[in-house]
Amino acid sequence: MTSDEHARLMRANQANWDARTPVHLASRFYGLDQDLDPERWFAAFEWEDLGDLTGRDVLHLQCHLGTETLALARRGARAVGLDFSEASVAAATAVAARAGVAVEYVQANVYDAVEALGGRRFDVVYTGKGALCYLPDLERWAGVIAQLLRPGGLLYVVEFHPLLNSLGPKPAPGEGPELLLRHDYLGGEGPVHRDATHTYTDGPPVEVATESYEWMHGIGEVLGALTGAGLSVRRLRESEELPWPRWPHMNRTPSNWWRLPEPRIPLLYGLLAHS
After folding, report:
1. Do the Cβ atoms of 194 and 214 come closer than 8 Å?
2. Residue 122 CB partners (closer than 8 Å, separation 6+)
3. Residue 196's pLDDT is what?
């Protein structure tokens, strides 16, 4: 696909996420009307890998409602969240204000982040949990990351495993416990087109802009893009746990996340790299 076609599909995604925002604000999934606990979206290994964030400049790319951004700020970071959805940025700003947490939010496509942030550089760039599948070009993404990081800065990607993405977003009504491959694990065959009135949350239906596009990216593609941009990969973890029960027969773990009783397969990965 051409860059113009990619831009057109990303504009469709932007409209879709604008439409999703009020749905997600109203959902029990995010629970923003309850006592806010943004750390529930983090695995313990994430904090181990990130280390002490006190006084560090941290950028959260594709932040949506800013739930993880809040947790980063509460850990002492000078946190900035960036998202292409105007509705998401407005909602995240309001959520942070209600929580009394100082976070700066910027509306921009991730590919335009360097210009949108005025050339600022960061100690840590954090991204993931359903972000990379909305990017058609990972080499371009990695080049942006390299420009956003200070020398020696850290990139931390905590993303749903491409195996999980190839299994699809959630079971269809009436499906049994079998794991069914629905999509490619590897990228390169173009985007997966979705047209759905319900998202991964329990919120009300999406009323407009229901179409969206996702691109498959294998772990090898992610690693290749980052090393090609001059970053060095320091650590790669694979985890069998998710922060929500993707399948009804998943079991809650001691960390209050969820895993399959069998088979043990990777559902999430954490990738730490430095400039």
Report:
1. yes
2. 57, 58, 59, 80, 148, 149, 150, 153
3. 81
Q: Which residues pair with 237 in a beta bridge?
A: 270
The Cα 184–Cα 182 span in angstroms is 7
Query: Which of 26, 23, 46, 45 has the alpha carbon at shortest distance from 34?
Result: 26
The continuous run of DSSP H or E covering 236 comes out as: strand 232-239
- The answer to whether the CB of 192 falls within 8 A of the CB of 214 is yes
Indicate whether 38 pLDDT > 90: no
The dihedral through the CA atoms of 101, 77, 133, 130 has a sign that is negative
Give the sign of the dihedral formed by CA 159, CA 151, CA 67, CA 194: negative
More confident residue, 198 or 250: 250
Nearest to 70 by CA among 45, 51, 91: 91
Task: Give the number of other Cβ atoms within 10 Å of residue 152's Cβ.
Answer: 8
- Peptide linkage before 263 cis (omega within 30 of 0): yes
Closest CA to 59 of 107, 121, 116, 132: 121
Burial per residue of 108-130, b for 16 or more beta-carbon CB atoms within 10 angstroms, e otherwise:
bbbbebbebbeeebbbbbbbbbe
Please identify which residue in the block is written with the tokens 């049994």: 176
Our measurement of the distance from residue 2's CA atom to the centroid of its chain's CA atoms, rounded to an integer in Å, reads: 24
DSSP string across 19-62: HHHHHHHT-TTTTTTS---GGGGS-HHHHHHH---TT-EEEEES
CA pair distance 158, 128, nearest whole angstrom:
5
CA–CA separation, 157 vs 132, rounded Å? 9
Q: Is the pTM of this model over 0.85?
A: yes
Residue type, 108: A
- Average pLDDT of span 122-133: 97
